[in-house]
Amino acid sequence: MVMEDNESCASRVIFDALPTSQATMDRRERIKMEVFDEVLRRLRQSDIEDAHLPGFEDDLWNHFNRLPARYALDVNVERAEDVLMHKRLLHSAYDPQNRPAIEVHLVQVQPAGISADLDSTSNDAGHSSPTRKSIHPPPAFGSSPNLEALALAASLSQDEDADNSVHNNSLYSRPLHEITFSTEDKPKLLFQLTALLAELGLNIQEAHAFSTTDGYSLDVFVVDGWPYEETERLRISLEKEAAKIELQSQSWPMQQSFSPEKENGQTGARTHVPIPNDGTDVWEINLKHLKFGHKIASGSYGDLYKGTYCSQEVAIKVLKPERLDSDLEKEFAQEVFIMRKVRHKNVVQFIGACTKPPHLCIVTEFMPGGSVYDYLHKQKGVFKLPTLFKVAIDICKGMSYLHQNNIIHRDLKAANLLMDENEVVKVADFGVARVKAQTGVMTAETGTYRWMAPEVIEHKPYDHKADVFSYGIVLWELLTGKLPYEYMTPLQAAVGVVQKVIGVKNAL
């Protein structure tokens, strides 16, 4: 039961927290200052009135400082006016009535391998306007090579079908929509935004996610799939869809998997988080017998301790009271509901739980070997081939048992695979696991981007095969000792997997 915030999709992708040398930090600061100076120079040379107001320079510097360093590293200085737009959207998001603040622009992605000379030649030759490089500006953030390759592949495909395509001369570039959101930062925000785009039939070609130091988000998506080369109708549609999602989140009381207190005839204030109970289990922990030892790990929503319960060594996952809300309570209840039903040598054993707020905790057997993730990526350990086979089989046995009991884990990754003192590997962390629906397919989205199946990323119906995909990524990780898609951000990896532009050989 690893509490590390291991790029989980329940949290924001924050890269500044990664350990870096002083030289790297100094280089980032220097680049950030250079980008700031260039953006300021371009804005002052333009006709933008705000750039000449007193205090503008300080406001602009504060904007760069509240965002992670990679914002300055990635932003396209040739679109300095977009920095002002980002600043304005973040300011607008302060007002709850404006959330999410949305901006839509038409942009054009230049496919990899196509030079500016070819563009100008095409224009001189009299080709139709979509071939011209300068019809629309480039995206606000530099496109990754994989996505430029995707643009080229799509353009070539369109060119082959020229007789049937409305973009029949789009070999060299194609118009896309760049959508920028700003709102209050919160868990699973990226999932909500990508689900919103999917509802409108939009395909994400590139994505950039930033969190500010004061709790707000700036999320930029380059998409295709909108049939019109305009922005206002798309912006209105986005606002309507965002309003629906906001209403759904406000009316979500823990109602999908469990019966709320109304069904139990309870009224007034709750004294326990409701957990389904068939009368056959006794798992409520007596805190008097629970002894806390040292902290093993800490995450955004809880801490993990080593301790003892009735003289037995245990791991204690404690949820942080200040982070409790209905969604977190729902995940806590779901984890208890599933863990108390499973018993297998390759699944971490559930001991019990305390369900009396604010002291919510889950107690499991203690796994002294730590996680497979820590062993591979922190301790730089290497599994010899016989041990590697054993680890892979242990995982397979644990997951097979879960699937036979109609349980889909949904977040299988190296960090959720724990080892005991005998190097037996066990599946852990069922916070986002679910019992398979009667139909055999599910559509709720969760997991961790680097290990997530494409159908889950796209919010499409999925079943136990999503875990099989994640298992394949884990096998690759065991064999190579590398982090999946290590040269990409988690979000870029997710987009690449969905668009099938990442080759296992080249990008994993």
UniProtKB/TrEMBL annotation:
Provide the residue span(s) of the region labelled Disordered.
Answer: 116-140
EC class name: transferase
- This chain belongs to the protein called non-specific serine/threonine protein kinase
User: Could you say which protein family the record assigns here?
Assistant: Belongs to the protein kinase superfamily. TKL Ser/Thr protein kinase family. RAF subfamily.
Gene label: STY46
Chain segments annotated as transmembrane: none
Keywords assigned: ATP-binding, Kinase, Nucleotide-binding, Serine/threonine-protein kinase, Transferase
Give residue spans, biased composition: Polar residues. 118-132
Provide the catalytic activity annotation: L-threonyl-[protein] + ATP = O-phospho-L-threonyl-[protein] + ADP + H(+); L-seryl-[protein] + ATP = O-phospho-L-seryl-[protein] + ADP + H(+)
Q: What is its EC number?
A: 2.7.11.1
Query: Native species of this protein?
Result: Arabidopsis thaliana (Mouse-ear cress)
Domain (Protein kinase): residue spans on this chain: 290-508
- From the UniProt record, which GO molecular function terms apply? ATP binding; protein serine/threonine kinase activity
SUPFAM superfamilies attached here? ACT-like (SSF55021), Protein kinase-like (PK-like) (SSF56112)
> What are the ACT domain coordinates in residue numbering?
178-252
